[in-house]
Every structure is written in C-alpha cells, then in structure tokens.
Amino acid sequence: MFTGIVEELGEVVAVEDRGESARLRLRGPRVTADARHGDSIAVNGVCLTVVETSEGEFTADVMAETLHRSSLGALRVGSPVNLERPLALGGRLDGHLVQGHVDGTGTLTARRDADSGTDLTIALPDGLGRYLVEKGSITVDGVSLTVVEAAGDHFTVSLIPTTLALTTLGTKQPGDPVNLEVDVLAKYVERLLGASAQGAGAQGQARQEAAQAAKEVLR
C-alpha cells in the first residue's frame, strides 16, 4: 500500500523488451537504500516488484497486463519516473490509500500555468468517471491529488509548485498519457451497493412468488 506522496524523481536506465513483457532498470538512490529482492516500489503509480538492486539502481519486470493498463510501455532510457516505497506500518498517511494498481491511462488535454501553481485537465477512459467526485482523491502517475472538477469524461486538478518541481507532472504537456488509479473505497462501495440491490431484488421476487402461491392455495 502506498500514499501517493512521491519520494524521489528517478530515471529509466535501461529497457529490455521481452516480447509480451519488459524488464526495466531504474535509478533511485533514495528508494533503493533499503530495498531488497521481492520488495515493492511504485513507478509512476504502478506497483512493481524489485528483482535486484545495485548502486542506487533496481530492476523490475513488467507483465503484459501492466503494459496494457499503464503507460510504462512508453518509457525509454532517460525517461523520468515518480518513485515511492510502500507505506510503513505506523507511518504517516499524508496522501490517501493507493494500491499501485492502475485502472487505466488518461490523456492530458489542457494545462494552465499561473504563478501560484498549475491546473491540469485530464481526459478519462471509459468507465472511470463514476468513481470521481469533487474534493475526492485521484492518483495521477503515482501522485495523490485532489479533484477540483469531476465530469463524466474528464477531471481537473491543481498542482502546487512543490509538486511540479518534484514529480514528472511538472513537465507533462497536452497529449501526454498519465496513469490513473481511482480511490479504491469508491469501487468497494459500488460493489457493495450493487450486491445489496441485487439481494433486495431477489428477496422482493421471492416474496411475490410466495404471495402468489398462497393465493393459489386459497382458491
């Protein structure tokens, strides 16, 4: 579990194409300081498993599903990446609960820069708009952000200068893809409400059938 508070702006050192999968080598001295084989590190919001570490770098394998769901397949040598280690038990939850399981990729459609910060408008893939609400949380390339405006097919966020300076979002331009993870609580609530509605419907149908059977007996 992560928080969406980026610890380090890393860099892609090598990309190995393995057909349906890929192996990445990334530089991140801070996040690899205590990393071992099998540990997790979020890369642009994607939870990856450390294969090996060496001198401030680590390698991780990216499977076909992850390449399909995220923008990691577009990374090249020299690409900057947002890096975060998992939340330690008892640590501060400064962002929000982030799984590192990307729901899909959005596209930056507008960027408005001002002295106080920058507003980004991001187009949503089909099916994700229902999980966003104003002042709710969204993870963009691994960065925990607050939704300013939520529409069916897009949303906006406002970035402070610190976020612009310390993450990849500072250089994103219209047309660039971004990894999106919606608040997991919204997905669980939707599932539970759907199951509750189905259960209520089934109970109602059973009561109707019982009432009809009773009427047939009384005739």
Structure explained in plain terms:
This protein has 219 residues and is of the alpha+beta class. It folds into 3 domains: 8-84, Beta Barrel (Elongation Factor Tu (Ef-tu), domain 3); 104-186, Elongation Factor Tu (Ef-tu), domain 3; 194-219. The chain contains 3 helices and 12 strands. A hairpin with a 2-residue loop joins strand 4 and strand 5.
Question: Which characteristics define this entry?
Answer:
Elongation Factor Tu (Ef-tu), domain 3; 12 strands; 3 helices; 21% helix; 3 domains; alpha+beta; 219 residues; six-stranded antiparallel barrel
End-to-end Cα distance: 62 Å
- How many β-strand runs? 12
Residue-averaged pLDDT: 89
The helix fraction, in percent, is 10-25%
The main sheet comes to: 6 strands, antiparallel, barrel
Q: CATH class of the largest domain, please?
A: Mainly Beta
How does CATH name the architecture of the largest domain? Beta Barrel
* SS-based class: alpha+beta
Strand order of the largest sheet: 1-2-5-4-3-6
In sequence order, what are the helices and strands, one letter per element?
Answer: EEEEEHEEEEEEHEH
Task: List the SSEs and their pairings.
Elements (H helix, E strand, L loop, with lengths): L7 E11 L2 E7 L12 E4 L2 E9 L2 E6 L1 H6 L10 E5 L19 E11 L2 E7 L13 E4 L2 E8 L3 E6 L1 H6 L10 E6 L1 H35 L1
Q: Gist?
A:
Helix content is 21%, strand content 38%. The chain is α+β, with helices and mostly antiparallel strands.
